[in-house]
Write a structure and sequence with these properties.
The complex is a heterotrimer of chains A (about 110), B (about 170) and C (about 350).
Chain A lengths: L7 H21 L3 H25 L6 H31 L13
Helix pairs in contact in A: 1-2, 2-3
Chain B lengths: L3 H24 L3 H21 L3 H25 L15 H20 L14 H10 L3 H22 L5
Helix pairs in contact in B: 1-2, 2-3
Chain C lengths: L6 H15 L4 H38 L15 H11 L10 H17 L18 H9 L1 H12 L3 H32 L4 H6 L8 H4 L1 H14 L11 H4 L9 H26 L14 H22 L5 H30 L1
Helix pairs in contact in C: 1-2, 2-12, 2-13, 3-12, 4-6, 4-12, 6-7, 7-10, 7-14, 10-12, 10-14, 12-13
Classes of the chains: A mainly alpha (about 110), B mainly alpha (about 170), C mainly alpha (about 350).
């Protein structure tokens, strides 16, 4: 591999770092909306990986790009459902800090 | 972008934006600031897609996520009480364990990825990538495509049902 | 004779020649070239917008039986320049309670996003900065940044009227974006391309204009585009009788001017997009080589800008609930119907 160009491993590193940042957010933030935002970061990290593999490993098939497209759509569906649940949590608990929601039954 | 130096420079600048933006998203106390930095990060990721020649995906990324983040902003403003005045604790008590886990995870990833040889293919990409993606979505991937649209519909209806106010 | 074909390439070659002569490396030449091209585009659009602002004042004056600006220049043509200079010198009042970074960046984002669209709009034969293969999608994606800008302005101002204006605009722009995108899908299906250059090339005379094959699509697009530009009858985000000035309440001086200019840039964008997709873009209606292409582009676009102004000064404003109901209950089903009809049409005729 030549050193001058940006290779696959650069993209994988970037994706790994972004995924870790998102993971940290999901584990530590108290606000449910902030947790959702961190989850979006993790989705994006995965998409970078998919597109990078698509370009470097299977450039002719484009499978990675199509799966990344599906990931984005599923992320949108996930955000829809999650926001509805957050709204419901707000009505029940008068707040959306996830550490207050520590029981499964009302 | 024909020049290799320019491509590399673009990659490093965008990577810096992605990582810095991501750190701000998870560490900002103000939820609205987090959302704005999320837009910034997602836009930089779209830039990374452009560097990777995935123009269609970059456009879709911006289109879908900017709208989605706008919704997150609205919900954040609507549902978070005392956004600016009171300095509440914005992280839970797991910061240190979480940091340890994340650093371990990152180290593990780097260790695993750094020297792994991947089979780099040198085949030329198809000339019109967007056209090819469209064709593939309607032929080989038509089943997942339909499943995803049903999923979206289900999410839509589900969200309405969950969020509807009880009549009683 | 008046054809500006290849002007952009000429500018590029000229700059590249000078810089390479100075001994700069290739990447610096490219980077600088892009910057100069951006400044040229910015200058052009800025001049157009200054003209549009004057024109809007003249049109509104004529419709209300007034004269409008008459003092500065011939019939007040450089009134807008004078106004812009005045706004530049004015004190930029920043209220104490604002969220400063958000308040500061909101007009910048709105302004920059409004201009970024012009990368891929064909102004004439060969007059396009970059004919992206995903042109339409790019334009739709960039215009969504307006929502973020307005929400940031609404939140950052820390003022209830601003916040309400920002929320209204977010609801409106996101709702109308759905029928807008779906309406464009009809053209994309017929053209089998997302590139604006290709779509223009397919409409080489009056009878090939896509508006004949997509009348419903055009109607939906035009209504939704009016709403996207926050123009009357959809100007609820800054309905002055209800919300003072909406999201611009706390802005003054240069920042106010940026919002104001962005609104007019968006008007020009919507009109340019309408003619590019439905009315043949820079192609003359009487076959190729009938007058300079950029003049056809400007003429057609200006006509549609005029229609937007006409709407503004003749229609009353809608109510919020009417506005949302119209987008979801009327435009969206019609847009789906349009896609269905287009699909059937393609199946039968092609």
């Amino acid at each position: 591999m030549e050193q001058a160009t940006i290779g696959l491993s650069h993209y994988l590193m970037l994706s790994g770092i972004l995924f870790t940042i998102g993971l940290f957010g999901v584990l530590t933030r108290r606000n449910a909306i902030a947790v959702l935002m961190s989850a979006e970061l993790m989705f994006n990290a995965v998409n970078i990986t998919l597109v990078a593999f698509s370009k470097f490993v299977t450039p002719a098939e484009l499978t990675g790009q199509i799966i990344a497209l599906f990931t984005i759509i599923v992320a949108a569906a996930e955000a829809t459902g999650a926001l509805a649940i957050v709204l419901l949590i707000y009505r029940r608990f008068r707040g959306i800090n996830v550490d207050r929601i520590n029981f499964m039954k009302w | 972008m024909s020049d290799i130096f320019l491509t590399n420079l673009t990659f490093y600048v965008l990577s810096f934006c992605v990582i810095a933006g991501g750190i701000f998203v998870v560490s900002s106390r103000n939820l609205f600031h987090s959302a704005v930095f999320l837009v910034f990060t997602l836009f930089a990721v779209a830039g990374i897609f452009v560097v990777l020649n995935a123009y269609l995906l970059a456009a879709v990324q911006v289109l879908i996520y900017v709208g989605a983040v706008a919704m997150l902003m609205i919900f954040g403003v609507m549902l978070t009480t005392q956004l600016t005045n009171v300095r509440l604790r914005h992280v839970n008590e797991q910061v240190l364990p979480a940091l340890a886990v994340c650093l371990f995870f990152l180290g593990f990833l780097i260790y695993g990825l750094w020297d792994t040889p991947f089979e780099i293919a040198r085949a030329a990409p198809p000339p019109d990538i967007s056209y090819k993606i469209g064709t593939l979505l309607m032929t080989r991937y038509v089943l997942p495509f339909e499943v995803v649209s049903v999923l979206l519909l289900a999410a839509l209806i589900g969200a309405v049902v969950i969020a509807k106010r009880d009549r009683s | 004779m008046l054809e500006l074909r290849g002007l952009i390439d000429d500018i590029w070659d000229f700059i590249a020649g000078i810089l390479t002569g100075l001994g700069l490396p290739q990447w610096a030449v490219e980077l600088f070239g892009y910057a100069v091209l951006a400044v040229v585009m910015f200058g052009f659009v800025a001049v157009v917008v200054l003209f549009l602002i004057w024109w809007e004042r003249k049109v509104s004056a004529k419709m209300q039986d007034r004269l409008g600006p008459m003092r500065v220049g011939w019939h007040g043509v450089i009134q807008t320049v004078a106004d812009a200079l005045k706004l530049l010198q004015k004190e930029d009042i920043t209220p104490k309670a604002i969220d400063f970074p958000i308040h500061f960046w909101a007009p910048v984002i709105t302004f920059v996003a409004a201009f970024m669209v012009y990368v891929t709009i064909p102004f004439g034969e060969g007059l396009i900065v970059s004919d992206l293969s995903v042109g339409i999608l790019y334009i739709i994606a960039i215009t969504t940044f307006t929502v973020i800008g307005l929400l940031m302005a609404g939140w950052g101002s820390n003022n209830k009227y601003s916040l309400l204006g920002g929320f209204r605009s977010a609801a409106q722009v996101i709702s109308y974006e759905v029928p807008l995108t779906l309406a464009l899908l009809g053209v994309i299906m017929i053209a089998q391309s997302l590139s604006l250059g290709t779509i223009v090339a397919q409409q080489s005379n009056l009878f090939k204009w896509y508006v004949w094959r997509q009348p419903l699509g055009f109607a939906i697009f035009w209504v939704a585009a009016t709403a996207e530009c926050n123009r009357t009858p959809f100007d609820l985000p800054e309905a002055d009788s209800e919300l003072v000035a909406g999201f611009v309440t706390e802005y003054s001086g240069m920042k106010f001017a940026m919002f104001f200019l962005a609104e007019f840039v968006n008007m020009f964008t919507a009109s340019a997009l309408a003619i590019t997709l439905f009315f043949g873009g820079w192609m003359s209606p009487f076959g190729p080589d009938f007058g300079p292409s950029w003049m056809w582009f400007l003429g057609k676009t200006m006509f549609f800008v005029f229609v937007l102004m006409w709407f503004r000064w003749t229609y009353p404003r809608l109510r919020v609930d009417q506005l949302m109901g119209f987008a979801w209950k009327v435009l969206l089903p019609l847009a789906f119907l349009n896609i269905l009809l287009t699909g059937i049409g393609i199946y039968i005729f092609d």
